[in-house]
């Protein structure tokens, strides 16, 4: 694998061999024409004496000695690298795999993924195998569960979806597992995940998560970047078709009733975005919305004015990963075209491409979700504009109404440009 294309090793091996041969010729010239001529003569005579007459030509003996010298030189370099790798805590046996992976990831496209919930973390777990330039922009308006309790206690942004995304992109399997560990007992910590508590601790230590972003990425060895849509706590407010307003996304599903959500907003409005988030959008080669809940995972990040403006001004293609099913209490009766219309209305830009699943869900899965009031989203009855911009590919996990991370990432790779490796 050391000689695999693009790993950046062959060029240096060729240079090493070339310089070694040139050095050998230079040394021979020095010894033969300089004051060490007698040593060169004795060396040649010594080699001649070791070679029986007629066994091999004298020049072949020289080539054999030169080859053995090169083998010894390569061996010494390999042992030197082995010692250095062990000194830095890297297993020499896996060094080539790590190097190969990172060199290929460096060629991957710059992708900005916007969303939240399990949908975004699933997408990130698939993208991590294709690119090292992923930036996740995560909605932080959740006010339920562990996140809601920490928000209320510490007046901080919701850490739950951030934790899931950090775990999905972490290069440390142990840390990824610990981040998602949920305490099942303990006064005050029962129900919290370790990752949520860690982010809460960093927020307290640094005076907010904005100051702790760099430390988090280094500590967790993130393959890419994960940022909150805003570092200021905010409440998601929904305006319903019957004129009512519901404050707090955890109250949407039980409070909507027979009405529908018309639009959502953040309170307070005009929240700031991190400069790193805006820089990532500006340099993006692809911007992906979802997968995830329309009004509680995707659109909340688009309600931050600076983020919405940056996406509208970006030349990168905007791709919406269509939801597989409607969500009871949130998108009841909303068609796939209605999902796209809602994004356009809140963002001010229509997605350039809609990624739609083509695999057929089993009847048992459809019936199970139908009992809860959820229905499959399809392109049927969609308008011409949506149909022409749709890319239809199999995207689900077997026998589940859930996106397959690998299939989703591969579909996005076919739509993204490939970058040349710069070094």
Q: Which series of helices and strands comes N to C?
A: HHHHEHEHHHHHEEEHEHEHHEHEHHEH
CATH class of the largest domain: Alpha Beta
Low-pLDDT parts are none
Roughly what percent helix? 40-55%
Structurally, how many domains make up the residues?
2
Averaging pLDDT over every residue, what do you get?
86
**Shape estimate:** elongated
- Strand proportion, as a percent range, falls in 5-15%
Largest sheet: 7 strands, parallel
Number of strands: 10
Structural class: alpha/beta
CATH homologous superfamily title of the largest domain: CofD-like domains
Rg, Cα atoms, Å: 30 Å
Q: What's the CATH topology name of the largest domain?
A: Rossmann fold
CATH architecture annotation of the largest domain: 3-Layer(aba) Sandwich
**Cα-to-Cα separation, first versus last residue:** 20 Å
Count of separate DSSP helical elements: 18
With strands numbered from the N-terminus, the spatial order across the biggest sheet is 3-2-1-7-8-9-10
Description:
There is one protein chain. The protein is α/β, with parallel strands linked by helices. It folds into two domains: 10-104, no CATH class; 108-415, 3-Layer(aba) Sandwich (Rossmann fold). The protein is 50% helix and 11% strand. It is built from 18 helices and ten strands. The strands form two sheets. It has a seven-stranded parallel β-sheet, sandwiched between helices. A three-stranded antiparallel β-sheet has the order 5-4-6. Helix 5 (117-127) packs across helix 18 (405-415) and helix 6 packs parallel to helix 9. The longest helix has 30 residues, at 58-87. The radius of gyration is 30 Å and the shape is elongated. The two termini are 20 Å apart. The model has no long low-confidence stretch (mean pLDDT 86).
């Amino acid at each position: 694998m050391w000689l695999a294309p693009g790993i950046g090793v062959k060029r240096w091996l060729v240079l090493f061999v070339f310089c070694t041969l040139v050095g050998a010729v230079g040394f021979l010239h020095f010894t033969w024409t300089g004051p060490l001529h007698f040593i060169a003569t004795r060396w040649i005579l010594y080699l001649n004496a070791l070679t029986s007459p007629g066994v091999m030509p004298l020049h072949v003996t020289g080539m054999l000695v030169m080859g053995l010298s090169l083998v010894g030189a390569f061996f010494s370099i390999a042992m030197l690298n082995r010692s250095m790798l062990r000194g830095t805590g890297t297993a020499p046996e896996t060094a080539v795999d790590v190097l190969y992976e990172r060199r290929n990831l460096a060629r991957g496209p710059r992708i900005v993924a916007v969303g939240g919930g399990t949908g975004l973390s699933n997408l990130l777990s698939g993208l991590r195998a294709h690119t090292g330039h992923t930036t996740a922009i995560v909605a932080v308006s959740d006010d339920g569960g562990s996140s809601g309790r920490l928000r209320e206690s510490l007046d901080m942004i919701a850490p739950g979806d951030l934790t899931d995304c950090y775990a999905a992109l972490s290069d440390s399997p142990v840390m990824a597992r610990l981040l998602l560990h949920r305490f099942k007992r303990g006064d005050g910590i029962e129900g919290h995940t370790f990752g949520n508590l860690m982010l809460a601790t960093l927020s307290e230590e640094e005076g907010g998560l904005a100051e702790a972003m760099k430390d988090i990425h280094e500590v967790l060895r993130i393959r890419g970047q994960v940022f909150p849509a805003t570092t200021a706590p905010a409440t998601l407010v929904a305006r319903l078709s019957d004129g009512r307003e519901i404050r707090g996304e955890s109250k949407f599903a039980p409070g909507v009733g027979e009405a529908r959500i018309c639009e959502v907003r953040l309170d307070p409005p005009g929240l700031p975005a991190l400069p790193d988030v805006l820089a990532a959008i500006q340099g993006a080669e692809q911007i992906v919305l979802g997968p995830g809940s329309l009004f509680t995972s995707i659109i909340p990040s688009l309600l931050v004015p600076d983020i919405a403006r940056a996406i509208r001004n970006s030349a990168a293609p905007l791709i919406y990963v269509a939801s597989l099913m409607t969500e009871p209490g949130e998108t009841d009766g909303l068609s796939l075209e209605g999902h796209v219309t809602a994004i356009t209305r809140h963002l001010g830009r229509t997605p350039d491409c809609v990624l739609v699943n083509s695999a057929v869900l089993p009847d048992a899965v459809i019936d199970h979700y139908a009992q809860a009031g959820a229905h499959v989203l399809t392109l049927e009855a969609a308008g011409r504009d949506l149909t022409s911009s749709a890319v239809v590919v199999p995207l689900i996990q077997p026998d589940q109404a859930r996106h397959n991370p690998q299939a989703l990432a591969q579909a996005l790779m076919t739509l993204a440009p490939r970058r040349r490796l710069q070094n």
